[in-house]
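Study this one:
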Amino acid sequence: MIPLSEAQERVLSGCAVLTEAPVAVDDARGLVTTDTVVAPELVPPFDNTAMDGFAVRSADVADAPVTLAIAGTIAAGAAPDVAVGPGQAVRIMTGAVIPPGSDAVVMVELTETSADGTMVTVAQSVPPGNHIRRAGEDLTVGQTVFGPGEVLSPGHLGVLTSLGMYQVRVRPKARVGVMSTGDELVEGPQPLEVGQIRDSNRHTLLALLAEAGCEPVDLGSLADDEAEIAAGIRAGVEKCDALLTSGGVSMGDYDYVKKVLDEIGDMSWMQVAIKPAKPLAFGLVEGIPVFGLPGNPVSSMVSFELFARPGLRKMMGHPAGTWHRQPVMGRAAGPLRRRPDGKTHFARVRVEYADGQYRVTSSGGQGSHQLSAMAAADALAVLPDGDGLDIGDPVSLLILR
């Protein structure tokens, strides 16, 4: 067996970063920038009001309460067609341009308009600049907005569009194909015949890819036929940036996937000192990373978490410190037992945050076939070799959700 860290390094070394490309802003959430973004214009582009109210000269309201003549109205989106003179006020709506002559805004709640709408009484004095948002207060021309390596959030996309930038250069989503093989696999709700199982891994992996920010590609389920599997893998690597298979990676297995990958790819077949997910295949087919994940449902998910997800995040340009989930510490609220076997175990656990700490309990059966416990888990508890943990023991956690 090889250490987990060595297996992870082998995977990461084979995952090349994808070529940058321009992407429409509306499609860029979660993607990673490759350039420095510089503001080409002011934000906001003009002095405007933060409130509905009246634009005034602050000197005219210094001795408030005071009554002023209403010289006009400025709506948001309209160019001001009136100036504020001595003893005057202009009705103004949130976001509207500050008119010439005004240096403050009084919010409408501090005013009372006469019955005929020609005069306004201001109840309080306000300082110069009151409720005025200055041009360039957020961003100035030439200012660095954000640099390369930024993971774009909805807020970032709002900044880009506020600057009139509707494309951004990023590392694109990784297109990742998922294929399953086996004559025993069944798709659909029909009753199972003896020896058949439902193809759950493919659907699980497609969902995990979408959750990881990739573009999942369903390559379907293939029969145990060498020619069909070879054609499926070749077709997959032609249109995808990476490929996932599940099953047939244990040492000593005779499996058509293994045979085909050995013939057409440069593969490493590893036994990793972990449980579940000990067997792992990884390599390149025509330069495309191929992850051979174990067939047991929980093993497949844990293997994706420890190996495929970090490699794919590297490909999509995420910073190195974020390829793997960062462990946090909690305490066992119930016993987490295991047997010594020279491996690190990843127990499926529920996590509750209480009294300033994460409290951890088992989410159910820990067999690699017991997918329901994985579905119920909030985290993987990292259990070093030994007998496990007692109540109150510290435990390292990889939070999944």
Q: What stands out?
A: DSSP finds seven helices and 29 strands in the chain. The mean pLDDT is 95.
